[in-house]
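During the no-cost extension, the postdoctoral fellow (Dr. R.K.) reprocessed legacy sequence entries with the updated structure-token encoder. One reprocessed record is reproduced below for audit purposes.
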Amino acid sequence: MLSILLVVECVAVSPSVKPLSQWEQANEATDARIPGGLPKDAILFLAQPPGNPYRADVNAMWAAIRAHRQTLNGYTGLLPDGFTPVYGSDCAELPRRVLSYLSFSHQGDDPAAYQALMARIVPIGFGDCDPSWRTTPPTLTASTREFPQDKLKGLVLSAASVGVTDGWGWAQVRLTNTTTEVVAADGDHCVQVAVNTLDASGRPVEGGYGVMGLRVDLKPGASLTLWWLTNTPKAPPGGSIQLGVIQKELRRASDVGVAPVIVPVQG
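Re-encoded structure tokens follow.
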């Protein structure tokens, strides 16, 4: 009976097939991202370019093997603590993975172990990597109070880009904290960036909503690059993506006079 089920499953699956030349081009492009002259003990960590994030991580793993270096890139069918399968160019994923590993290896309270591991890692293609993370891990707290409403205007969105690549819709944006308040990464009413898909006339598209959450606390004067990805892009021809700061379950920044950012969809 088991053999019959296995045969039926194999017959029912339609494997995705790509020409060998496409894989060779992808390998060459990934190899070209890795700088030369790296120390033997360097640990590579490549950002995910727009498109299929799982393919990007597999390509990065093979590139690290060809470069004879270790890597933080990887693919798993499970979601171990501290691992996020879709992170794009959000550099907060780097210290989060390091902290997760140190916790797993019972070194979570060892600052020297954190610094030694971070010193070996070479981030490639990420935005807004805080230099202080090399020596001091970022904080990730859950706020027990609302972010001051009058300071929402001080949370500024910039460098927004959106598109559709290989059937994956994506958006990234930089969030800068120009206030004197720390923006907590978590909490009942944490700050997020809402993603709304609009049609050519500016009306919301059904099923085209999402949110970008902060992966770590955002310090005063600091910036984070946030990333959103979907394998079911909803943007029709002539459509756009609207990005706006929100307080979870409370209000939008536009409620206090902050205009959202609207970017036409390319691709």
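The longest helix spans residues 20-33. The mean pLDDT is 89. The remaining legacy entries will be reprocessed before the final report is submitted.
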